[in-house]
Every structure is written in structure tokens, then in C-alpha cells.
Design a protein that fits this description.
The protein is of the alpha/beta class. The chain has 14 helices and 16 strands. Helix 1 crosses helix 3 and helix 7 runs parallel beside helix 8.
Length: 373
């Protein structure tokens, strides 16, 4: 504990713009050209560093400018000069330092855990209670409006051993979704298929379209309607024969409580960026499991740094049983920011066992992709 009495003396931020390799269309919006993240570095007086990432999306969780301001102006005073061992108290205070900004709080907790792990020589999953799995099945989303481009991606995924794909639907005509599902079921039968609307459908049209989608027997159908349409989600769940999952309807534990009360889903997407940190994300998963619901590890438009945080969180959370979507670093970013490749191969994410997160960012890449610091 003596080393954990070190003071946090350094607090640095980077606002990065990272080029991406393709257009991605979702029900609530489109990503093209680049995505933006905020990277946080904490430094203890002994010289150890802890790293965290905020990965917002303006149409989903919030803007990069809001995350940057939350970390720089509102959260910084609660961190600098504090002891490393005060992690839980710092997070409790940060929760009320600024409303919302869940991605900024996720970056802070990640950096605090990484710093503690670096000092103690323990991986983050050990700080969360210990690793419960050796690896995590990887799911890769198909969201390119150019289906031929996604067919090329499918060929690569098959060659590299990925066995799960999730089709993003609802951003174009319903017939386009049916065509792609027919192609997957006829030409790519070795893939397990999931479907995600990202709130694209209106409640009055959802049941007809979702019923046609369920004929293809996807593993699950995710968030067909807008996040607050709990009544529509509950009706859909009662009328279809495949699991219905919630994403945007469930950010943190508070939403999970409401979701189970209304009976809106059979499972939930757990994301540290939505929940506001690793421990709150774990609480969402545990609440889901306690109510007989499944959970999987979702992501935002993240670099490998946020993927690492999510991987450690899932490794310590056996309630998350449906794999993860930590594919952005390998399959979507033109270049990741880590010093070493994010550890995934043959269709699984491997859990680092080195101190902290296990891999740190490349300083040269941070400077190269920086919009502000």
C-alpha cells in the first residue's frame, strides 16, 4: 500500500483524429473519413503512467469536445494532487463533477486502474477481481453501404478465423437488409450472424420489418427503435421468436433497472463508454444476469487503448457471455495508436497479463494524430 500513497502529479490530454478505412452507416448516423477520441495520461510522482481513452460519438453518447472539456476543466481538479490509492473516491467525486460525459469518466477510471496496475505489477483484470476467461470471442460489424466492400471484408474475416458478424441494418431500404441477409445465409454459412438497427425503425413499422428479419434466425436483433421507446421494445420482445437486445436503451445501472422493470429485452450491450467506467459496466452486466438476461461487450469508435480496458473488464466479468466487438483497432482504423498490435487472432481477443492494461500508446502516433493537447 505504501507505493499506492504516491501523489498523482501529471495529467495530460490529447484530442486525436484517427483516419478510418471505410464508410460505416448505422441507424442513428454515419462515420466516414475519421473518428475522434480523447486520450488521458496520468503520472505518479514515482514516474509510472496510466492511460485511458474517451471514445464519444456525437449522435450516441456525446461529442469529443465535451469529453475534452469535462476531463480538462471539470474533472482535473479532483485528480491532480490526489493519492493513487484514492481511485474509488476520485471516481465517486468525478461522477458529480460534471453531468453525463460518461466517456470522460470511463477514460479517467481506465487511467487510474492502469496507473495502479503499473505501480503494483498487476494487470487491470486482477484489480477487478481476477481473470475468469483466457480469451473473448470477437464479433465484427458489417456496416458499409457498399455491400461488395463488406464481401471483401467477409473474405478476410473468414481467412483470419473470425466466426461472428453483426449486420448493421435500417440505414437504407429494408430490401437492402434482406438482400444482405440472404447473401450471408447462402454464401457465408460458416458465420454466426447478429443484427443491429441502432434505433433506425419507427415503432409503427418495426414489427413488420423485424418479423421478416427474424426468419433468417440471427443470434439476436438489437435495438430496433429509439432508446426511450420502452413500450415498443417490450411489444417487439413479446412478438418475435429470437432474442431482442438493448443497446442505446441501457447506458448505466440506472437504465438497466428500468429495462428489467419494463421487460424490454433478452440481453444488453455493455460498454464502458456508455456506463461511465469499468465498474459501472460490470454492474450493468451483473444486473442483467440477475434478471436472466444475456450480455455482450460492445464498443464505440475506439482505438486499441479503449479495447484493452474493455477486454480486462470482460475478463473479470463472467456475466458477459456473448463475446465482444473490439474490432475497430484491427479492422477499421487506418492505424491504431498502441505501441504493439491489439491482441486478437483466430477470432478471439486475448487477455493481456502484463501490469496495468498491458500495452501503452505510441507517443509518436499521439503527436501525429493530435488536433489539440
Amino acid at each position: 500500500m505504501g507505493e499506492m500513497q504516491q501523489t498523482i502529479t501529471g495529467y495530460d490530454l490529447w484530442h486525436l483524429e484517427l483516419p478510418v478505412v471505410a464508410v460505416r452507416s448505422h441507424g442513428v448516423g454515419q462515420m466516414d473519413g475519421s473518428c475522434e477520441i480523447i486520450v488521458l495520461r496520468l503520472m505518479a510522482e514515482g514516474g509510472d503512467e496510466g492511460w485511458g481513452e474517451a471514445a464519444p460519438w456525437s449522435v450516441f453518447t456525446g461529442s469529443p469536445e465535451a469529453s475534452y472539456a469535462a476531463l480538462d476543466r471539470y474533472i482535473r481538479p479532483f485528480v491532480t494532487g490526489r493519492k493513487v490509492c484514492e481511485r474509488e473516491r476520485i471516481m465517486a467525486e468525478a461522477q458529480y463533477a460534471v453531468a453525463h460525459c460518461s466517456e470522460a469518466k470511463a477514460a479517467l477510471e481506465t487511467a487510474l486502474l492502469d496507473l495502479e496496475g503499473q505501480i503494483s505489477g498487476r494487470p487491470v483484470h486482477a484489480l477487478l477481481g481476477g481473470r475468469k476467461c483466457e480469451n473473448i470471442p470477437l464479433s465484427v460489424s458489417l456496416a458499409n453501404p457498399d455491400w461488395d466492400a463488406d464481401i471483401d471484408l467477409l473474405a478476410r474475416l473468414r481467412e483470419e478465423g473470425v466466426g461472428i458478424v453483426k449486420l448493421k441494418t435500417g440505414f437504407s431500404e429494408h430490401e437492402f437488409d434482406l438482400m444482405r441477409l440472404e447473401s450471408l445465409r447462402s454464401d457465408w454459412t460458416d458465420f454466426s450472424v447478429r443484427v443491429d438497427y441502432n434505433q433506425a425503425l419507427k415503432p409503427d413499422e418495426a414489427i413488420r420489418q423485424v418479423r421478416e428479419i427474424e426468419l433468417f434466425l440471427p443470434d439476436f436483433i438489437e435495438q430496433p427503435v429509439e432508446r426511450h421507446a420502452f413500450g415498443a421494445m417490450a411489444r417487439l420482445r413479446s412478438e418475435i421468436n429470437v432474442p431482442l437486445l438493448a443497446d442505446e436503451s441501457v447506458f448505466g445501472p440506472e437504465d438497466m433497472e428500468n429495462a428489467t422493470s419494463f421487460g424490454i429485452c433478452d440481453g444488453v450491450s455493455v460498454k464502458i463508454m456508455k456506463a461511465g467506467g469499468l465498474r459501472r459496466a460490470r454492474k450493468v452486466a451483473r444486473m442483467a444476469s440477475a434478471n436472466g438476461l444475456a450480455a455482450y461487450g460492445g464498443d464505440m469508435f475506439e482505438s486499441g487503448l479503449a479495447h484493452l480496458a474493455g477486454a480486462h473488464m470482460i475478463a473479470a466479468t463472467p456475466e458477459i457471455s456473448l463475446g465482444c466487438e473490439f474490432y475497430q483497432a484491427r479492422y477499421y482504423l487506418a492505424e491504431d495508436i498502441l505501441e504493439m498490435p491489439f491482441p486478437c487472432s483466430r477470432g478471439v481477443v486475448e487477455i493481456p497479463d502484463k501490469p496495468g492494461l498491458g500495452i501503452r500508446p505510441d507517443m509518436g502516433k499521439l503527436e501525429f494524430f493530435s488536433r489539440d493537447r
